[in-house]
Amino acid sequence: MHVDMDAFYASIEQRDNPDLRGKAVVVGGGANRGVVAAASYESRVFGIRSAMPMAEACRRCPDLVRVAPRMAHYRDVSRKIFAVFNEFTPLVEGLSLDEAFLDVTSSRRLFGSGRRIGLAIKDRIRECTSLTASVGVAANKLVAKIASDLDKPDGLVVVGPGQVNAVLDPLPVSAIPGIGKRTLERLDTVGVHTIAELRRAPDRDLEPVFGRFTRKTRERASGIDDRPVITARSEKSISNEQTYEADLCNRRDMERQLLRLTERTAGRLRKAALSAGTVQVKIRQSDFSTFTRQKRLKPPGNGTDQIYAVARELLAAWLNGNPDARIRLLGVGCSSLAPAEQPDLFGDGYSGQASEFDRAIDEIRDRFGSDSVARARTLDRP
User: Fold this and answer.
1) Measured CA distances, 19 to 57, 143, 321, 337 (Å)
2) What average pLDDT does this structure show over 141-164?
3) How many CB atoms are located within 10 Å of the residue 357 CB?
4) Cβ-based neighbour number of residue 373 at 10 Å
5) Nearest-CA neighbor of 171 among 210, 219, 221?
6) Is the pLDDT of residue 245 over 50?
7) Each residue of 23-41: pLDDT tens digit?
8) Three-state DSSP string of 103-118
9) What is the Cα Rg of the chain in Å?
10) Percentage of residues in the chain with pLDDT exceeding 90?
11) Which helix (H) or strand (E) holds 36?
12) pLDDT bracket for residue 56 (50, 70, 90)
């Protein structure tokens, strides 16, 4: 079973603010350089979609209502939704805040058929959150994911084992997850547009496009997928980045923004009880040229000051070679993640882990919201 919330961020904003209901709403960054994080179904009539530049979205719909993201709030709603999933099965593989695979094979004796379970999950989500979800039910993850997208919003599509080809064959190749724009262009040159055509195409047409993955791609076009639902997925990296309405031109502003991003990244590390062994800085200039720099963190840790010191060093080194840079995007990431260790009471007093100050800030933000407290250095005003 694949459960996908409908226009999740935008739907939450419309739920919380009745004045937004029925209007074209997007959640995302500023009007000039931000991107659309979520688009209401009213806005999709204008061709607006996630990841579209906000400026283009505004051109398509002059009456578009833009709402700033409230990620902490969305995560709270997501926890309620995942609690619903766990009422029906412990086998839940979260893909994002608003999307998950569920293996309900062993739940049928208690809750009934896949259709009944899908309807029950939709009803419980609506009861707990006043939001709608679309559900795809099938024998495997691939077909379930495709099915959940066939009847949005608030849909339920069940694909039985004998119906797979009948359901998949008429669909465009783009319905298969992971097939992107460039691959579609190459398939177009050999006359492959639907999943049926992909399934039946000769190897001589597909091998130049997919190479050693030709057989696997043909299996996917046939609805074959043996991947299990994975209940725990270890994170490989944690990062935060931001595109700015106006270019950052002086080092003081750059370092202030870098500290903001470091606080967010370090806070997420601590929340996940992880330590980082590597720090990365991402820099995008006004001409869209993009650079990344990274350095080992010794010892591994999750303290804001420790990570910021390395991130600041990486940024300074890059700026020394690019003294007149105008930065439109900054990012701070951490990788080489491992479970955080408790500080050594009899060691040298420094383990790289969060300080009492960090833990106090985390506790305040958990209780009162992410904007409830901030370091003076990160404030915009003098």
Assistant:
1) 20, 37, 50, 43
2) 95
3) 12
4) 12
5) 221
6) yes
7) 999 998 765 668 899 999 9
8) CCHHHHHHHCCHHHHH
9) 24
10) 73
11) strand 36-39
12) very high
The band of 181, judged by pLDDT with boundaries at 50, 70 and 90, is confident
Are 103 and 177 within one domain?
Answer: no
Average pLDDT for 347-358:
64
**Judgement on whether residues 196 and 309 belong to the same structural domain of the protein:** no
Check whether residue 17 and residue 80 sit in a common domain: no
Indicate the range of 24-38, 240-254, 263-277, 289-303 predicted with least confidence: 24-38
Domain count across the chain: 4
Band of residue 344 on the pLDDT scale cut at 50, 70, 90? very low
Q: CA–CA separation, 242 vs 282, rounded Å?
A: 10
- Which pTM value belongs to this model? 0.71
User: Among residues 13, 42, 93, 99, which one is catalytic?
Assistant: 99
78 and 179 belong to one structural domain: no
For tokens 């086998």, the residue is 91
Tokens of residue 126, six digits? 């609506």
With beta carbons less than 8 A apart as the criterion, state whether 62 and 47 touch: no
Structural domain includes residue 231: no
What is the three-class DSSP state of 142? helix
Which is it for strands 133-137 and 2-5: parallel, antiparallel or unpaired? antiparallel
User: For 5-44, b where at least 16 C-beta lie within 10 A, e where not — what string?
Assistant: bbbbbbbbbbeeeeebeeebbbbbbeeebbbbbbbbebbb
Specify whether 207 is catalytic.
no
Mean pLDDT score, 346-351: 44
Do 109 and 122 belong together in one domain? Answer: yes
| Cα–Cα distances in angstroms (integers) from residue 64 to residues 30, 46, 306, 369, in the given order | 13, 10, 42, 27
C-alpha distances in Å from residue 305, one per residue of 43, 81, 263, 302, 340: 42, 35, 9, 9, 16
Q: What is the pLDDT of residue 350?
A: 45
Domain membership of residue 206 as a residue range? 172-213
Cα dihedral 167, 169, 171, 173 sign: positive
Measured distance CA(236)–CA(227) in Å, rounded: 20
CATH number of the domain encompassing residue 14: 3.40.1170.60
